[in-house]
């Protein structure tokens, strides 16, 4: 699995960080998402897919075959 | 409980799509159909009053998923055909085009319809902003030299006024509150918002309710205030609230009272669920019926509904959250605010345009507002979660 984020679309909600703190963080100054792990381990796949689905900025993409 | 053999979702937007994604993520392999009134593939609404209205995004950029991602969901999307009737007992939905769709589980996710002013229908130059088509119609009407009046001093009206003003079009904001969002934010944050709007050139005509429209030869000419004054306008945007889109549920057997009334599992009747702006469910933590009109609720409630369809049997108990973007202020709100709450700044400095304020009632933290401090506001959210859950029995 490969995760990508689009900073321009992120609204800084932090939903992703609450769901998967090992994969996402937010910048201190403007709250924009920081991707901590582009290739999260299998145990995190479910929660990362959920983060992508519920991200209110539609800023997270997951490619399953990468 | 066994999983239903098929699921029908009515409403092809944030909540409807998130329901389908959550069903598939949780391993559901049955048949899924999504019915939507609009002809467009699922798109997102927050960018409509921001990027799309302002012109920095093309309409396609508001799309929620690419066609490839949608087709991977193995779901039939029936678009441009609104549901007109539900038979809750049989779980059958009838559509405007004459389709009859029946499923083991039906999810109602039809959102809201904007309130309108008397005499607004058929009058040129008067707009609402809920759909992509609404947004494009308004944009086209913002021709140079036109003067816009936004009716509604809540979050949507204030956001539209900011976007129109930033695009260089003269705009006035009208509504009964002393400052934009004052009833919700209270004097400190609403006062800052009023200062920001005024400094950037929005003409604030607040403190007087709007009673109607003035017209001239079939086109709007102004907005009438309770004070007797008429604000001249070439274009009027009516943004003073919206009502749940439930008229099609009349006689269905599902209870509608300011939304589809649901239990704590977001269930309105046997096999019938509701999610998003249209759902009014029992929040066990607060022991109250709640209906939230925000983007994160649409998806989080959809995840809860998908789980309950599959037999998880969990109550839905979110901490409400929304954000708004006006000029250079990015405001994030967790929990609930109220104008009479005790407000204290717990981080940053309002004078510097970055702060977090905590709202308390009866000594308990009910909400947090971050002004250009999203991460810090989120980190304070746990103070509220405690208070929300403290009401649990
Ligand atoms: C302009 C705008 C800006 C916003 N900005 C923000 C923001 O900054 N932050 C935030 O937190 N929230 C914001 N919101 C709120 C957020 O967009 C909503 O909470 C969210 O869209 C709700 O999703 P939903 O799927 O429940 O309803 P909707 O998005 O309203 O979707 C309902 C869908 O159902 C369809 N439908 C209606 N009736 C029928 C029928 N009879 N049959 C079939 N389909 C039907 C509609 O066409 C629509 O596509 C904004 C809303 C608007 C309108
Ligand atoms: S959930 Fe989405 S919008 Fe919110 S911080 Fe994460 S990436 Fe940004």
UniProtKB/TrEMBL annotation, chain A:
Gene3D superfamilies, per database record: 3.30.70.20
Domain 4Fe-4S ferredoxin-type: 1-29
InterPro entries listed in its UniProt record: 3Fe4S_ferredoxin (IPR001080), 4Fe4S_Fe-S-bd (IPR017896), Fe-S_cluster_ET (IPR051269)
GO MF annotation, one: iron ion binding
Record has Transit peptide as a keyword: no
UniProt keywords, alphabetically: 3Fe-4S, Electron transport, Iron, Iron-sulfur, Metal-binding, Transport
Cofactor(s) annotated in UniProt: [3Fe-4S] cluster
Record function comment: Ferredoxins are iron-sulfur proteins that transfer electrons in a wide variety of metabolic reactions.
UniProt name for this protein: Ferredoxin
UniProtKB/TrEMBL annotation, chain B:
Domain FAD/NAD(P)-binding: 6-302
GO CC annotation, single: cytoplasm
Domain of life: Bacteria
InterPro entries with a match to the protein in the record: FAD-oxidoreductase/Apoptosis, FAD/NAD-bd_sf, FAD/NAD-binding_dom, FAD/NAD-linked_Rdtase_dimer_sf, Reductase_C
Needed cofactors: FAD
All copies of domain Reductase C-terminal, residue ranges: 321-385
GO MF term (any one): oxidoreductase activity, acting on NAD(P)H
Record keywords: FAD, Flavoprotein, Oxidoreductase
Name by which UniProt lists this protein: Ferredoxin--NAD+ reductase
Source organism per UniProt: Amycolatopsis mediterranei (strain S699)
Phylogenetic classification of the source organism: Bacteria, Bacillati, Actinomycetota, Actinomycetes, Pseudonocardiales
């Amino acid at each position: 699995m490969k995760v990508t984020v689009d900073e321009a679309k992120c609204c800084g909600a932090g939903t992703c960080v609450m769901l998967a703190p090992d994969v996402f963080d937010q910048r201190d100054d403007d709250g924009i998402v920081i991707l901590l792990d582009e290739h999260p381990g299998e145990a995190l796949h479910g929660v990362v897919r959920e983060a992508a689905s519920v991200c209110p900025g539609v800023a997270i993409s997951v490619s399953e075959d990468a | 409980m066994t999983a239903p053999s098929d699921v029908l979702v009515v409403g092809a937007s944030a909540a409807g799509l998130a329901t389908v994604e959550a069903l598939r993520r949780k391993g559901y392999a049955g048949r899924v159909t999504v019915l939507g009134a609009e002809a467009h593939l699922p798109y997102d609404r927050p960018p409509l009053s921001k990027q799309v209205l302002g012109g920095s995004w093309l309409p396609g950029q508001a799309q929620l998923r690419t066609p490839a991602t949608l087709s991977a969901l193995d779901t039939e999307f029936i678009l441009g055909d609104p549901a007109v009737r539900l038979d809750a007992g049989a779980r059958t939905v009838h559509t405007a085009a004459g389709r009859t769709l029946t499923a083991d589980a039906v999810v109602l996710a039809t959102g809201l319809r904007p309130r309108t002013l008397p005499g607004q229908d058929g009058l040129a130059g008067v707009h609402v902003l809920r759909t992509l088509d609404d947004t494009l119609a308004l944009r086209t009407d913002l021709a140079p030299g036109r003067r816009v009046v936004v009716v509604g001093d809540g979050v949507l009206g204030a956001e539209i006024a900011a976007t129109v003003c930033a695009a260089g079009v003269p705009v006035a904001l009208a509504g009964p509150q002393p400052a934009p969002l004052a009833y919700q934010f209270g004097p400190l944050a609403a006062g800052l918002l009023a200062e920001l709007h005024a400094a950037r050139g929005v003409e604030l005509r607040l403190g007087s309710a709007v009673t109607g429209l003035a017209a001239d030869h079939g086109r709007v000419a102004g907005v009438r205030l309770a004070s007797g004054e008429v604000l001249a306008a070439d274009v009027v945007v009516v943004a003073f609230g919206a009502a749940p889109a439930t008229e099609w549920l009349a006689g269905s057997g599902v209870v509608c009272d300011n939304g589809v009334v649901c239990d704590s599992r977001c269930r309105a009747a046997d096999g019938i669920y509701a999610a998003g702006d249209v759902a009014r469910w029992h929040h066990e933590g607060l022991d109250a019926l709640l209906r939230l009109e925000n983007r994160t609720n649409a998806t989080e409630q959809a995840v809860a509904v998908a789980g309950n369809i599959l037999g998880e049997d969990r109550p839905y108990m979110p901490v409400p959250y929304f954000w708004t973007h006006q000029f250079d202020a990015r405001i994030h709100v967790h929990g609930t605010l109220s104008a009479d709450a005790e407000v204290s700044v717990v981080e940053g400095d309002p004078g510097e345009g970055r702060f977090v304020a905590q709202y308390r009632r009866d000594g308990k933290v009910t909400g947090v507002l971050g002004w250009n401090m999203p991460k810090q506001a989120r980190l304070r959210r746990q103070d509220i979660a405690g208070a929300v859950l403290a009401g649990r029995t």
